[in-house]
Amino acid sequence: MAEADFNGETPFFIFLEKVEEAYEQTQRDLKEINILINQSAAEVERLAQRNAQSVNRLRQLQSNFDTQPRDYIREVYEAQNDIQQRLFTMRGQLEKLQSDQRNLEKLAAFQRELVQLTTGMTAVPPAGGSAKPRLSAGDKFSIIRVIQTEEAAKQSLVREMHDGPASALSNFILQAEICQRFFDVDPDRARAELNALKNAAATTFSDIKDFIFDLRPMMLDDLGVVPTLRRYVESFQEKNDLAVPITVTGVERRLESYVEVTIFRGVQELLNNALAHAQPTQIQVLLDMAQNQVTAVVDDNGSGFNADEALSETSKTIGLSSLQQRIETLGGQLTIQSRLGKGSRIEFSVPIEMDMGI
């Protein structure tokens, strides 16, 4: 973007207008999703009542199972299965809508704060007496990037929650209902279903623990970046059946919290990017803790990519470009060496202003 594009007075107010319009649109979206949630909740309640009636009908059938025609038995079971499937689908839809509602509320709060912030900027005349401030290209780009990064993080979190824990919990409800159905008629089948439910719950609990660790590992605050990275890389290898050796050089020590978070998030993002896009058979991680800076390197033997395209503003993924901006904001540097079919080597460094003893 050229500097001249944003140095005039008009672009700032155009941007402010767009933010206000986006906030108003989010409010409209919230109203619409509230209506959908109410409709879906009513449908779930209706289906739950029908399911209860169907369960009672099934119990009556089971009490006189031997005297009922085969077609009637099949009809009752098929009706019960159909209602349960519809109820499961509607519950999943309701959970998705409620998740979207929460994220829209967070977005609306963020947009409201941004409107208040930018409106406050227009109320303070800058030196020279002009009534309108000027927003540099860098300032506007930073604001836009913050919004994009926030939304990308929220979308990723929503997808992982919906596809992981939320989906698993819905399955638990269905399995519990199946167990309940077999308690009286087939105790052995009920025990088998309960055992499957127990195993599924244990697996989901393990997945949630991994999800929490990926989101914000507590040991990062307690032990620092080096033990946390070693633990994360070990887990990454186990989950993906991929060799990921990690080498740490220099003096291992605690650093400022923002430096440790930046290093951990950077390596985490580069590992996930390599796995998702490069199909490597090996990834190497190097962390060098020098006196005045920390350097992290992620080297893979995957398919490679075009670095200029990945860092461009028109790229569909903003992971690398936002990582580069975060690193440069801290006075560091990110460099990429990659060729199609030849793997990639991505290195970033962060200066250390003050060391903290362990």
Tell me about this structure.
The chain is an alpha+beta fold. It folds into two domains: 211 residues; 133 residues, Histidine kinase-like ATPase, C-terminal domain (Heat Shock Protein 90). It is 68% helix and 9% strand. It has ten helices and five strands, in the order αααααααβαββααββ. It has a five-stranded mixed sheet, covered by helices on one side. Strand 1, helix 8 and strand 2 form a beta-alpha-beta unit. Helix 2 runs antiparallel to helix 3, helix 4 runs antiparallel to helix 5 and helix 7 runs parallel beside helix 8. It is extended and about 85 Å long. The N terminus is likely disordered.
Kindly state the number of beta strands.
5
Average pLDDT reading: 76
Strand order of the largest sheet: 1-2-3-5-4
Distance between the termini: 44 Å
Classification by helices and strands: alpha+beta
Order of helices and strands: HHHHHHHEHEEHHEE
Give unreliable regions as ranges: 1-9, 122-135, 314-318
Strand content: 5-15%
Count of folded domains: 2
Number of helices: 10
Outline the biggest β-sheet. 5 strands, mixed
Q: Report the C-alpha radius of gyration, rounded.
A: 27 Å
| Helicity level | 55-70%
Shape: extended
